[in-house]
Every structure is written in structure tokens, then in C-alpha cells.
Amino acid sequence: MNNKVLIAGAGAIGGFYGGLLAKAGADVSVVCRSDYDIVKQQGYRIESATLGSWQFMPSQVLRNAADYEGQADYLILCSKVTADIDRVALIRDAVAPHTAIALIQNGVEIEHELQQAFPDNLLISGLAFICCNRIAPGKISHLAYGKLILGNLSNSHELNTPHLRDLFLRAGIECVISEDIIASRWQKCVWNAPFNPLSVLSGGLATQAILQNQENFVRRVMQEVCNIAEACSHPLPTDIVESHITLTREMPPYKTSMLLDFERGHTMETEAILGNAVRAAQRQGVDCPCLQSLYVLMQLRELQIRSSGPLK
Amino acid sequence: MNNKVLIAGAGAIGGFYGGLLAKAGADVSVVCRSDYDIVKQQGYRIESATLGSWQFMPSQVLRNAADYEGQADYLILCSKVTADIDRVALIRDAVAPHTAIALIQNGVEIEHELQQAFPDNLLISGLAFICCNRIAPGKISHLAYGKLILGNLSNSHELNTPHLRDLFLRAGIECVISEDIIASRWQKCVWNAPFNPLSVLSGGLATQAILQNQENFVRRVMQEVCNIAEACSHPLPTDIVESHITLTREMPPYKTSMLLDFERGHTMETEAILGNAVRAAQRQGVDCPCLQSLYVLMQLRELQIRSSGPLK
């Protein structure tokens, strides 16, 4: 079988899922910049609340995709989606004609630049539902969840996507194939669009406090995202707002990924989550004033951060 | 003439305008809590960029309105309008039957609780357009502007309001009487509603940066405030948004009062400026999603501040 995997942008998410694929028997290499030295020397230490602890020693640990030896069957891109990361440049030198490119990334409408750059490769768009942090160089803590949703953008009946899913399943993580991965992205955005910016703009509130105090507003932002998805021909289940609210109410207080990035001084995925959604709305002529307000405020917040010091 | 004036809530604004009235020959006393000792001893030192510097020694310096000797012709309330200040309690013990109560305060729809508490007194509602700071105990720096707009809520033809205006004019400060002070309040709110919360929620941007980066959003919030004012039967001039934008473009970069309060850890006038406007919109059935987003975010920001430490 085709089991040569290259993970690009191997932080916590990439290291974790790469480590799972290695457990399942795949030949997994990583492009890993920030923790290169330690990972090269001793691999990743992964401590999972649900899957035990293990050492993940990649076959090749690389600073750049160009250094990859051999041809990848799967190139899995796990970087954040931010303006300071050129995702095409990050993977270009390791994309062979038969390489399937899989994204495990946040946001909506994030596939276009990869489709343009690699029109002849299979593109698998994927979403991770996971709590997973880098707690030290080369050390990853998996706290909870872990489900993956994968989907082909072309809806073609090829075998690469089911094969990748099977590898993840073999490693013990939930993984499903979505027939409409674009709708799945919008569905995740319904949750991300209110909670991510509200957590940052409030100065650090967790999900519970936001929901308990401003449930109506959260619902309105969620509904605006549903309206945009529908206008983009990806209507979401009619109970999606309700089920997201119920789910959030049942979750322990949770710090969003954007809040964690903010607290660490990292670039936030404002454009991938909010900017792309607002631009889709504008293209479709859908009014989304609350979502747009959050987007405006995040842009101003980021402007203020940039003007008071460099982002890491 | 009736020249006995008591200033309640005498911080920078109250000390400045009280000092002007004293210059004009009025008998001015103050209720002043935080700087009581130093003001009792040596009065206020006022340094104005446009009116020179002077010492303002109030006739009576009081901790409480109840200690006032004599009866005030004018009781001028200059406190902030926040939930932690009971404005009625602050002045009640010094309101005589003939006392005219004047407010020099921010916000919209802030008169109701005073009208209810003192139905038989003349209520003069006033707005100050001023840059003025307390730079040390008992020391006030007046940086720019200073115009006052005064208006009777009852539109009655009495002489107290023109007389108060004349005192201010005599002291050298611009002061006009508005025939529709409620509309004047909404007009000021058109500016305050976007710039105040955006400056705080962005983490500290001045007006210039906000306008240069998000002019369309600022205009939309301004227009929502105009729609509310109109629904409340106080239509604003049709060019009000344009003229506020032009004015702001011509101003030097400016830190809003809400941002200054935020930076000093003081309570912000969120309810007086945003909450009252949103509630008026709800009462009138006017949709104001951008304004409401700002209000929601300010409430969450304040919740986060309260949960991380006491407000000063």
C-alpha cells in the first residue's frame, strides 16, 4: 500500500496525527522548523489522555520540504492558516505527481490557493476536533477529542481518502469521510466565528462565561454563518445552532484556539475563520453585520498588537 | 442675581467649569470626595491651554451634599454616569425647591431618573465638548475645546438656563442653548458610539488609526445611531455622519474618554453611551446590529475585568 507520509507544519496537531499514522504502520516524515533540533535527535514525546503515551520517531526530520527523500503518497499540511505562512511554498518541493495533499486546518474557503498551485493532485480537505498542545519542545499533550473529518473536494471516487481514513482508524482515532467537506467547514465555522473572537476581544473569557452572558448574540452570529453557508450552496442542518449551543453548554469552560494564540503572542487565524466568511458573504450579497463587527474588531486588535510590538 | 452654585461630582470637568463660574463672579461650592483634603486646603489649580492658569478656591468644599450651607440656585452634576454612582443620592440633600439642576454628563436618555426624583425642579441637560484631565490631586489641565451645550428638557421659557449660559460666556467659554438637547445628545452619541468602544476593544487605538482602517464600519455604526434617534423623534441633520467623519479626520489622534477610563482602571460609561442607545433601539423596534455587537463586546470586556480584579 501507499504509506509514505510527509507532515508539513508539524506542530502539536501535525506531530500528534503523524504519530498516530506511524503507530498504524505508515512511514512518516516531518517538516518541522521551530523544534527541529530536538525532534531530529529524539522525535516527539506524545502524551495522550485517551491513547496512552508513546515516542514518535519520524523517518526523516526535515527543515524544508525540498530535503525530502523519495516521493510522498500523502502530504499532510497541518500549519495554521495565516498570512505569514505561505502554504504553497511550504510544500511545493515535496509534491510529486501522485501525491495526495491533505489539509488538516481551520477556516473556510482555504483550499483555493492549493487547488490553483497543484491542479493535478488530489486535494483532501480535513478538519480536526481536538484539544492538543505543545507543552515543551518536541513534547505534545493530547487532552481530549481528536476526531477527524476528511473529504475530497472533487468528490471523485478514488481510494486515497478511504485509505488515509483507515490508517487513522487503525491508530485508534475517530475519522469519518464527509460527502460535503465544504459544508463541514462551515459547520465548524458556526462555532468558531462567535467564540474565537469573543474570547480574544473580551480579554480572555472562556466559552462558558461568553455563553452564559451573551447567548442571544452568539446565536445571532451563528445564524449569520448559516446564512452565508446556505448562500454558498452548502446549507447546514436546521438544528445546527441549537446543537452547537447545547454542546458548548455541556463542555467544560474552554479556551479557544484563537485565545491561546493571542495569549502566546502568536498570529491568529482571523482571516481564515472570519475574513473568508465575511468575504463569502459579500460575494453572495448576504448581510452579516454581527460577524462583520467581530471581524472589524479583530483587525483593529491585530493592528494594535502590530503597532505595539512584533508578533511571534 | 441667582449666583449660588454647587458642583457635585467635582472631578476634572466639574472643577474646570466650577472654576469658570467662580471667575465669572458666581459663589461656587463643590462636593468633592477623592481630592477632598487638598481641595479643602488649597482649592483647585487650573491650567488651561486657552484661558490661562488660575486658582479656584470654592466657597465651600464638602464631602457630602447634605453639608451644604444655604440653598443652591444651580446644582451642577458633573459625575460620570455609571451604575456605581447613585446620582440622585449624590445631590438629593442639596436640592431646594427653587434649585435648577444642570447635568454636564455624557450619554443618551440619562435624565429620566433625575426627572423622577425631582419632578418639580428645572432640569437643564448639558453636554461638554472638552479635553480636560486631572493631572494631580486638585490639579486640572485643560488641553483643548470646552464648548457647552445646555437645554431645558421642558422647553419652558424660564430665565435660569440663559443666565447660566451668560455666566459661562462671561468666563470666556463657548456656551449655547439647544432647542432640542435630546437631539444634541444623540448627535454626540453618533461620535461616541463607534469611537469609544472601538478604542477600548482594539486594545488602545486612537481615533486616527480606527478611522483610517475601518471607516466603513464607523460610518455604519454612526448611521445606526442616527436611525435610533430618528425613531425616537429626534431626527439628526442629514450630513451628521459626514461631518463627524470630517471632523475626526482633522483632529489630532485622540484617546477617547472610555479608553482613558479603561487605562486608568476606572468604570466606563458603557451603559450611558451604548446600553441606553441599544435599549432605545429595542423599544422602538430599530435593528442596530453593529452597535449591539459593540455593546455585547463591552459587556464581556467589563465582565472579564471584574472577574480578574476590582474596578477602581
TrEMBL record, chains A, B:
GO terms for molecular function: 2-dehydropantoate 2-reductase activity. The keyword S-adenosyl-L-methionine does not apply. Residues 180-301 form the Ketopantoate reductase C-terminal domain. Signal peptide: none annotated. Gene3D superfamilies: N-(1-d-carboxylethyl)-l-norvaline Dehydrogenase, domain 2, NAD(P)-binding Rossmann-like Domain. Keywords: NADP, Oxidoreductase, Pantothenate biosynthesis. Pathway: Cofactor biosynthesis; (R)-pantothenate biosynthesis; (R)-pantoate from 3-methyl-2-oxobutanoate: step 2/2. It comes from the Bacteria. Pfam families: ApbA, ApbA_C. Its EC number is 1.1.1.169. It catalyses: (R)-pantoate + NADP(+) = 2-dehydropantoate + NADPH + H(+). InterPro entries: 6-PGluconate_DH-like_C_sf, 6PGD_dom2, ApbA, KPA_reductase, KPR-Related, KPR_N, NAD(P)-bd_dom_sf. Residues 5-154 form the Ketopantoate reductase N-terminal domain. Belongs to the ketopantoate reductase family. Catalyzes the NADPH-dependent reduction of ketopantoate into pantoic acid. This is 2-dehydropantoate 2-reductase. It comes from Methylomonas albis.
